[in-house]
């Protein structure tokens, strides 16, 4: 399901309020995902990766309210793309991964998320990442990010039940690196070996962006393949918390790469880097 890929209406001016609304939509996927969690069965997508009933049920829960929330924006979902139904998106559009971390879901470690990100002019400007197994929601937009506890299907809590988050300043030594639990390649290992990392923490799905956003990590290098819907929501949360996501040569990671099948190249997610750290990371 998607809206027309034609000219987009202006986005809401209050991007944090938009992020809150995205969070409310993401939480709707919690009940069908957790129902399926107890009876996980997997088929294969066209690219050979697993798809569970939870992917499809979560997408069905998300897309109608999302289309109502942002009726003028094209919506690109992972499951649409897997089925060969991806629209060609304009400058402004929505990226949805209804179940990021399918392998984590199948392995039953709880590290899977629901990701919704809004793209404007190639940049992620608002996003929500929901971890239904833990009942934790991260939202970010307009330079503000929050984390909160929300049980699957519940409403977002009032302000007293939320916590503003901010990426920490990247230390010169003793950095904490987040790495993929399922995809740790030789290039990532080489990157880490060249850095002053005191600790390496594996994590699934978009959780790596969120952990950096809330100050529990400093860097997440990714040299293996990802898709735009894998990263947009977490990127938006991290950017709103003061972090950044860049290519290895330091350019911002951009979205809307239709000619590349919406595939990302290599990237590195950072907390708040110092000028010395930027100079160290420069090619």
TrEMBL record:
GO terms for biological process: 3'-phosphoadenosine 5'-phosphosulfate metabolic process; phosphatidylinositol phosphate biosynthetic process; sulfate assimilation. Its EC number is 3.1.3.7. GO terms for molecular function: 3'(2'),5'-bisphosphate nucleotidase activity; magnesium ion binding. GO terms for cellular component: plasma membrane. Gene3D superfamilies: 3.40.190.80, Fructose-1,6-Bisphosphatase, subunit A, domain 1. InterPro entries: CysQ, CysQ/Inositol_MonoPase, Inositol_monophosphatase-like, Inositol_monophosphatase_CS. Its cofactor is Mg(2+). It is a peripheral membrane protein. Keywords: Cell inner membrane, Cell membrane, Hydrolase, Magnesium, Membrane, Metal-binding. Mg(2+) 1 binds at residues 78, 97, 99-100, 230. It is found in: Cell inner membrane. Substrate binds at residues 78, 99-102, 230. It is an enzyme of class 3 (hydrolase). It catalyses: adenosine 3',5'-bisphosphate + H2O = AMP + phosphate. CDD domains: CysQ. Mg(2+) 2 binds at residues 97, 100, 230. Converts adenosine-3',5'-bisphosphate (PAP) to AMP. NCBIfam families: bisphos_cysQ (TIGR01331). Belongs to the inositol monophosphatase superfamily. CysQ family. This is 3'(2'),5'-bisphosphate nucleotidase CysQ. It comes from Alsobacter soli. The gene is cysQ.
């Amino acid at each position: 399901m998607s809206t027309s890929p034609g000219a987009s209406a202006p986005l809401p001016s209050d991007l944090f309020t938009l992020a809150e609304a995205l969070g409310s939509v993401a939480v709707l996927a919690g009940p069908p995902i957790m129902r399926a969690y107890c009876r996980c069965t997997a088929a294969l997508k066209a690219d050979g990766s697993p798809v569970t009933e939870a992917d499809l049920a979560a997408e069905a829960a998300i897309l109608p309210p999302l289309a109502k929330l942002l009726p003028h924006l094209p919506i690109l979902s992972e499951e649409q793309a897997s089925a060969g139904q991806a629209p060609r998106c304009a400058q402004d559009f929505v990226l949805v991964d209804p179940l990021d971390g399918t392998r984590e879901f199948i392995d039953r470690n709880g590290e899977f998320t629901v990701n919704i990100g809004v793209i404007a002019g190639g940049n992620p400007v608002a996003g929500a990442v929901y971890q239904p197994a833990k009942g934790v929601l991260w939202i970010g937009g307009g330079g503000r990010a929050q984390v909160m506890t929300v049980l699957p299907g519940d409403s977002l809590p009032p302000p007293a039940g939320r916590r503003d988050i901010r990426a920490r300043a990247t230390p010169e030594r003793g950095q904490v690196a987040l790495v993929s639990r399922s995809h740790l390649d030789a290039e990532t290992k080489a990157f880490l070996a060249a850095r002053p990392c005191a600790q390496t923490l594996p994590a699934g799905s978009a959780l790596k962006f969120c952990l950096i956003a809330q100050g529990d990590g400093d860097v997440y290098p990714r040299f293996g393949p990802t898709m735009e819907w894998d990263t947009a929501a977490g990127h938006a949360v991290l950017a709103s918390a003061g972090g950044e996501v860049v290519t290895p040569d330091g350019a911002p990671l951009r979205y809307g790469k239709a000619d590349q099948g919406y595939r990302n190249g290599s990237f590195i997610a950072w907390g708040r880097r110092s000028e010395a750290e930027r100079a160290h990371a420069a090619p």
